[in-house]
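quick one before i forget lol
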Amino acid sequence: MRVRILYHDHCFDGAASAAFFSRFFESKYDRDAKFEFTGLAHKASQLFEDSLFDGDVNAIVDFKYSPDPRLNWWFDHHQSAFLSSEDAEHFKHDSSGQKLYDPSFSSCTMFIAHVAQEKFGYHASDLSELVEWADIIDGARYASAQETDAGDRKRERFGNHPQDYPLDAAAQLGRDYP
């Protein structure tokens, strides 16, 4: 099974969300899934080209909603998640239980981790540091100026492209940082 994950490009939370979601999906649904990651940027023209929804399963994390019928999973936490009132209305009528939105979360990674545990019984303790740092970085919740430097080093170490790393790269990020 081929899983296409669209995520907010050039964003630590976007990359961390894609990495966490891929681990969740692999563990809960298909251990042999092949993941393809595509970073998205906000632009004035159409955000979602038809060719982007070419997986057997298609997911969007940490990015705007799409009413495309081929979208299977969606997670976001941004106030600006819907491009139009029609998109918001479409989302409200979804009954799949796999398109989720909660603007009360500081990061999409934390939101996905919360939903994965509460709704699907999935917990990845080896990813807890990744989830924590995504929440600190995306929510600008640094305790000190020194922690800001540590967050910058985390971003540099992991980067913003989950496709450059094996599925366990998220856990590696936490283990390798002194």
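fyi Strands lie at 2-8, 34-40, 57-61, 73-76, 99-101.
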